[in-house]
Amino acid sequence: MQKYDIVIIGGGPAGLSAGLSAKKAGIDSILILERDSELGGILNQCIHNGFGLHTFKEELTGPEYASRFIEQIIDKDIEYRLDTMVLDISPNRIVTAMNKTEGMFQIRAGAVILAMGCRERPRGALNIPGYRPAGIFSAGTAQRLVNIEGYLPGKEVVILGSGDIGLIMARRMTLEGAKVKVVAEVMPYSGGLKRNIVQCLDDYQIPLKLSHTVVDIEGKDHIEAVTIAEVDSNRKVIQGTEKRYTCDTLLLSVGLIPENELSKNAGIEISSVTNGPIVNESLETSISGIFACGNVLHVHDLVDFVSEEAGKAGESAALYVLKSKETRDDVNENLSNVIVNRTNLTDSESLGDLRTDTIINVKAEEGVRYTVPSKIRSLHVNKFINLRFRVGNVYKNSFVSVYLDNERVIHNKKRILSPGEMEQVVVTKEMLCQKTDLKNITLKIESE
Ligand SMILES: Cc1cc2nc3c(=O)[nH]c(=O)nc-3n(C[C@H](O)[C@H](O)[C@H](O)COP(=O)(O)OP(=O)(O)OC[C@H]3O[C@@H](n4cnc5c(N)ncnc54)[C@H](O)[C@@H]3O)c2cc1C
Hints:
seven-stranded mixed sheet; five-stranded parallel sheet; 27 strands; 22% helix; binds flavin-adenine dinucleotide
């Protein structure tokens, strides 16, 4: 069986950044496995600009942003295999994969980093009546067709859902000569970034209809028209508000689902809110030595945050491997070490975790949908911890509050908070140290 210290699954921005930071932290034996024929992940099809403002203080296109990382991967001799699909990860970190040249093979990994990204929610999840005609695409599929394959899916377009990919594709289809008639969004607010609404819809006079959804699709072989209607606060259609739009294309931008089939099969605990693994401050999942980052962990709107988060996962995985090696050396030297008393210990499993840390739960309450991480081991916080979260509604002139048990330690005023934009708040080690026996950190949105 092949052996690597760290195996990274997915060569998108998360996998690339995780690989680089693991290398920087002192690990040489790293392997990135990517099912596609190129590194870069979904960024390869995002040819518009706007990437890298935080990381490089420049506006790059998706492929340009990815290439900055790919060049470093090559420069630092980090190994990767393309056209290689990971099929299984076992709880003791045996990775099973296959490709055309090696067939099926297995790798024993000291640590695994999950960086598989996400996929788009399909039409089947939406319950729209009508036939199943041609001409209905997910926005990401259309993005790939236009930007990589060189096909224009259609000329008269309706878009359902105002997630970022849908907004970007409204502009892209317009620039390619199609007429985008309307973007319908079932929620009373957009699921995308404000900047994308302005730059992709407003600048091209494309109407955005909030609290509207598609209620009928016409056409048997190919889509011919859709009917859009207004919905009430319970998302029930308001009779009499229906409006018909002729079109040859319906693009769906109705959400992203983290790709966690491998994680679930491995037995990793998954959050029912994010659909990503539940992780601690080191981005380690419920299985020791398996880390997660990027869109597989929770859906990000800015790739810069993906790279930053993945950097942390790479560092944590490196630390885990180094600690495991250290502890293994100790075991060899002194067989009476406490470790031998543990049953079912496989390879370096859990060796870094023998110190009994206090676990602090991070709770999302009153307007906060989730936090990543949702658990913190007090001894593992370095200088600070970045708590990333999304809100469940639009809040204006409200406060993001952080409570350490019952004491409020952060109360930041925000002009606007919206579900389409990921937020973050920094809790310092100093704050944590001031509290003895801290059990819960709670994030809330407060009106005053
Ligand atoms: C269709 C789409 C379009 C997007 N467009 C934009 C945009 O225009 N602007 C923007 O800021 N953000 C966009 N995003 C968000 C973007 O996904 C993130 O910013 C970022 O790319 C996430 O990085 P990642 O590495 O986590 O995931 P990805 O970029 O998705 O990379 C994951 C990688 O893992 C690989 N993989 C998955 N499963 C396996 C497996 N079993 N074996 C081997 N390899 C595997 C995939 O092939 C892929 O290369 C888009 C997302 C999607 C889904």
